[in-house]
Amino acid sequence: MKSVLRTNVHLVVSLVLAMSFPLVSLAGLSAVTPRKRQFEFAYTATVKDIPRGANTVDLWVPVPHDDPFQTITDLQIDSPSPYQIHTAQYGNRILHVSMESPQQASFTVTLRFHVVRTEHIQQRLRQVGLAPTPEERDPNILRWLQPDRLVPIDGQIKQWAQEVVEAAGAKTDLEKARAIYNHVIATVKYDKSGQGWGRGDIYYACEARRGNCTDFHAIFIGYCRAVGIPARFAIGFPLPADRGAGQVSGYHCWAEFYLPGIGWVPIDASEAAKNPAKRDYFFGAHDEDRVEFTIGRDLILNPVQVGAPLNYFIYPYAEVGGKSFTSVETSFTYRDVPAPAASSRGE
């Protein structure tokens, strides 16, 4: 009863706040030229304190992929042992290092690569009168309607999602997704204090109404799926907006939902909550200040890990003797590089 009452209170707050920003505020805007960012990125993983007598050590590291909004080049890998790069679920790329009877107590693997990241703007939300575009169908589209382990699509979640869209008077899938987005950013606080946050547990997020990006997007994705809108999770690293060089302290995640005739629509609910001035921007756009590594949750690696599917995969995963091993340190750095000057030829 407490959880239901709390949810109803947040529905009222969400509805009142939503009156100040319409369901589909991007319609009618002219197309804009996406911004680009070029940078070098280094990802370092150090497996430490390997027990003496260990028979096997396996390390899996995510490798960023090319897509329409990022190009990865000049991939260099430093590893003390032979490695392989495999393709796994949803096109995710994975570096795997395997050692038998390791003689060292630690080893380090480093990935270095160049990124050209393009701002992801769903232009079709901004232009009126365009005919539907034929979209290449995602082979995993049905998966993006199904639950994740920590994002069930049960009766309670369906009820809460339906209450949100009905309170906003949303009819179309676009209006429903916007209503859910407005509800999440109006009722969830970006707050990493205490325990429980960061797992993307939809019931924790709905009860606590706080957390990090994983928790924000658990609600958005879960509610979208609950009303029949495909939605998917992606994770990578954020970069400061100011150009330069430095350390990246941790991951960032975001989401997309699918509209027939339009395609995948990017959203970033946690960034919108942290920066209310950009809440319209982050419904339909992802900035160029990020690099994406993997898509999806409950991930099975390649080669398959002995342990359970991973909740999400952005940090290294290791096993020693077929058992999960957590003594792995990481470091992530970036350095912006100038775009090459456009060549010109005199007449």
Q: What amount of the residues lies in strands?
A: 25-35%
How many strand units? 18
Termini gap? 78 Å
Strand order of the largest sheet: 3-6-1-18-11
Q: How would a crystallographer describe the biggest sheet?
A: 5 strands, antiparallel
- Class of the largest domain, according to the CATH hierarchy? Alpha Beta
Q: Helix amount, in percent?
A: 10-25%
Characteristics of this structure?
single chain, 347 residues, alpha+beta, Immunoglobulin-like, C8orf32 fold, five-stranded antiparallel sheet, 6 helices, globular, disordered N terminus, disordered C terminus
Summarize the structure.
By secondary structure, the chain is an alpha+beta fold.
Describe this structure in words.
- The radius of gyration is 21 Å and the shape is globular.
- With 347 residues, the protein is α+β, with helices and mostly antiparallel strands.
- It has helices at 2-18, 155-167, 173-187, 202-208, 213-226, 269-274, and strands at residues 36-47, 56-63, 70-78, 83-87, 93-100, 107-118, 120-121, 189-190, 210-211, 231-238, 245-247, 252-259, 263-267, 285-286, 290-295, 317-320, 323-325, 328-336.
- Strands 3-6-1-18-11 form a five-stranded antiparallel beta sheet, with no helix packed on it. Strands 4-5-2-16-17 form a five-stranded antiparallel beta sheet, with no helix packed on it. Strands 13-12-10-15 form a four-stranded antiparallel beta sheet, with helices on one face.
- The protein starts with a helix and ends in an 11-residue tail after the last strand.
